[in-house]
Amino acid sequence: MKKLDGLLLLNKPRGITSTACLNKLKRKFKLKKIGHGGTLDPLATGLLLVFLGKATKLSPFLMQREKVYSGVLELGKTSASYDADSEIIEKKDWSYLNAEEVKKEVLNWINLEEQEVPPISAAKHKGKPLYFRVRKGEDIPVKRKKIKIFEVKVLKTELPFVHFWVRCSAGTYIRSLAHSLGKRLGCGAILTELTREECTPFKLEQAYSLDQVLEEGLEGKVLSFKETLANWPQLTVNPYLEEKIKKGAMLSPLELPLQPKEGLKILISNQKEEPLALLECRDELNPRWKILRGLWS
């Protein structure tokens, strides 16, 4: 099979880790470089960005975009992982609550600015993942992180179950949203189902199932650099500028036919249509195009 560099949109099945999905692909297609853009827990299904070959260099520029999830939470239960994938450590009565009260608290997620990181997670403390410390029986520090909730919908309430939809910043723990809801309501809550529907600008409808990819192969399913960064400005440069970029030189605004604007990022290709580099405009008063990431090797 020819070497592939690009983005595979994968629909991760339930009951398997994101890393295990990648390992299956790596073994099947003998891939040397593979990575994903944002972990999905084993309980979760949905859109997983899988970067192949040189495209692993694009991961940092796509991981920080907004995410969309739909899911189901259950009131009256608490677990160490904040979801249904670990032992239930406490059960409480939820019957004093009505659907409107619960809906109001779910919609209140829109006002959250930070959240508690689940103790069973890949978040690190002093260089070690929290889940590693849990396995070792070590004390787990309470870590909090900044988040942004852009939009929330309650799709259905069949207490003790609540079906919801949320658009949020990258890195938001949806199971922490469920856990904090349970604390506010006084009865506990866990996440029981979760589907990632979107990693802006990619949608779940564009994704292939893991079984389909393993059975049919990667051919025709991998997005090129240009398709992956379709919402970025894109330019082709001549051999002189190609060589200049490869030497790490910054480019002046006169060398590229694009209005400079501080923070603007662009994809540069050579005349063979090969991806060359990601550039960013720095310093609006005296603008220069600086290399963010070289893609030529």
What does this structure look like?
The chain contains eight helices and 20 strands. The protein is of the alpha+beta class. It folds into three domains: 7-65 and 201-227, Pseudouridine synthase (2-Layer Sandwich), CATH 3.30.2350.10; 67-199, Pseudouridine synthase (2-Layer Sandwich), CATH 3.30.2350.10; 232-294, PUA domain (Archaeosine Trna-guanine Transglycosylase, Chain: A, domain 4), CATH 2.30.130. Strands 1, 2, 3, 4, 11, 12, 13, 14, 15 and 16 form a ten-stranded mixed beta sheet that branches.
Number of helices, where a helix is a run of at least 4 consecutive DSSP H or I residues: 8
CATH architectural label of the largest domain:
2-Layer Sandwich
Number of strands: 20
Q: What top-tier CATH class of the largest domain fits best?
A: Alpha Beta
The secondary-structure element order is EHEEHEEEHEEEHEEEHEEEHEHEHEEE
Radius of gyration: 22 Å
Mean pLDDT: 92
* Low-pLDDT segments, ≥5 res: none
| Helix percent band | 10-25%
Described by the principal axes of the CA atoms, the overall outline is elongated
How can the largest sheet be summarized? 10 strands, mixed
Q: State the secondary-structure class.
A: alpha+beta
Relevant CATH superfamily of the largest domain: Pseudouridine synthase
In short:
With 297 residues, the chain is α+β, with helices and mostly antiparallel strands. It contains 8 helices and 20 strands.
